[in-house]
Amino acid sequence: MRAMILAAGLGTRLYPITKKTPKCMLPVVNKPVIERAIENLKNHHINDVIINIHQSESGLQTEEYLGTGSKFGINIAYSEEETLLGTAGGVKKASWFFDPETTIILSGDGVFNLNITEFVEVHHERRGLATINLSYIYDTSQYGVVVVDDNWRIKRFQEKPKPGEAQSNLVNTGIYAFERKIFDLIPDGEYDFGKELFPRLLKENIPFYGYYSEMYWNDIGTIDVFRQVHMDILMKKVNLPIPGKETRPGINVGINTYIDEDAELIPPVAIGNNVIIERYARLKGPLSIADSCRIEENVYIEKSIVLPGVFIGKGSEIKNAVIGGGARILQGVTLTDNNIIGPSSIIGEYSTLAGGIKIDADVDVPGKSELRKDVMMEENG
Fold first, then answer.
1. pLDDT at residue 381 above 50?
2. What is the residue range of 182's domain?
């Protein structure tokens, strides 16, 4: 059995965090989200995977990191899209790769612990052309809602219904089991599962089914969900691996990382590889600090996500922030609450950001600034 991971999306809803990193490559507690999907496939003996990528710098980042898959013990092929083909169109373009057997399709922005083996077994038992993995969500307004009958056969869809109008709380997770014949129903070019293929199956009365289990699932399509997934993993609300060695309960530390003996770490805290944490720094979880960061002395960080290569200068205070890769937070900066700092931006010495302020990528904020509104480029609103 083979699988495909859909990873060509641009991740615009996560701007500015995804301006320099493709969504599928964002670290989720110090491991790229797509790597977590690959590990799940490997755990269920699926060792041949194709990944669609956009012909852009972000797509090249994904291919450069994953390579042939040898470091994960699997084989990876790539399907490049010069123009985005949609979910179904991307799969059709890559269909040369699939065996006559069942194919698994995964969304590259999903964090989950689905038992894929059991999922496929149920798919085979029902003998449908397709099976959609479902999750129970209270607020369905940002998801595709799926309505099933007593036998789990899919009867209708609702795309992002308004609160109170949803006919079900079961939503499409972007995880599918397909039989080979389904590719005959997908035309070449741009085509979408939710908007075109699945409605066609309903119209033609072709049986396909939903599958539900008590698994964990969340996509990282928005900053709020990106935060929530981190908190869920760090607080061990879900059984997903945290990289690094657990040096004491709730503290995970990567290789080649230096933590001064006078620094204080209050769990849960996950720290990546090649990180330096200087004396009197105080790190209070739930907190994730990715690879190659430097935290200077007397820094206080609480309930935040710090992405790779970030520098935080002495005496800075950071609460409930998301800091993009390569950003520099200079000495004495205060990020008061719920700030988002874009990649490679610089926040000048002794600056203060009011709660909720968002800073775009590559912004240089002068020292001693007091920001009370977002700093975003015009093209991104």
1. no
2. 2-221
